[in-house]
Specification:
Length: about 220
């Protein structure tokens, strides 16, 4: 077996007994000796947070592991990344390249069937967490819409109330929306409608005098 060793410590972590760079490296070397693994690379990121996904040491370790189809060995998954989704992404990249991931603290070893099963379970849980977050976001947006509160940019036909949240109808803009709807029903193109609005001196949402077909299209889609 070939192995690539990767160690990382944040500034605070270096002062914590048991996770210093030296302590991590000692444990990784002991694992390699126990498993008769040939070390083909050793990389580190000192004083860099695990939330930083663009670490140079990690990038070099991933490249070496994939090139040699070796096992990327870390002291713990937290040394690899502080993000579960990022860990899953890295493990998937290794797997597609025929490489593996070994984490000593979690006793995770994708070179074995049991290790691969555990990591797949982690991937499923991570996907479930993402789906839950997306569902909560959709429900929150629907709730805001039902209360007439702002969701994203202020749509043409409304203005933002003093509280910075509630949308209030803008009579002049709503008349323009109705005009756009009627002109579209007559068969006019988006550009022709834009030219008509400009000719009538109807201001855009930003107060501009010149309308574009893109601006008209956004209103047409919203009113559909």
């Amino acid at each position: 077996m070939q192995a690539v060793l990767y160690i990382r410590c944040s500034t605070e972590g270096q002062a914590t007994e048991g996770v210093s760079l030296e302590a991590q490296l000692a444990k990784l070397n002991a694992w390699a000796a126990l498993h008769d693994a040939v070390i083909v690379g050793q990389f580190s990121d000192a004083g860099i947070s695990g939330m930083d996904e663009s670490r140079p040491g990690l990038a070099a370790a991933m490249q070496a592991a994939t090139e040699h189809q070796a096992a990327l060995v870390v002291y713990s998954l937290s040394r690899l990344s502080r993000s579960t989704s990022h860990c899953i992404k890295l493990a998937d990249q290794l797997n597609k390249a025929g490489a593996n991931l070994v984490s000593l603290s979690e006793q995770l070893d994708t070179t074995s069937a049991a290790g691969r099963m555990v990591f797949k379970m982690l991937a499923v849980l991570a996907e479930f967490e993402r789906d839950q977050l997306a569902e909560r976001t959709r429900n929150a947006m629907q709730h805001k819409k039902s209360k007439g509160e702002r969701v994203g940019t202020v749509p043409f036909g409304y203005t933002l109330a003093a509280d910075g949240i509630t949308l209030e109808p803008n009579a002049a803009q709503l008349e323009a929306v109705e005009l756009i709807r009627k002109l579209r029903q007559t068969g006019l193109s988006l550009q022709q409608i834009a030219d008509e609005l400009t000719a009538r001196s109807i201001p855009t949402a930003k107060g501009n005098a010149q309308w574009t077909q893109q601006a008209v299209n956004r209103i047409v889609k919203r009113a559909a």
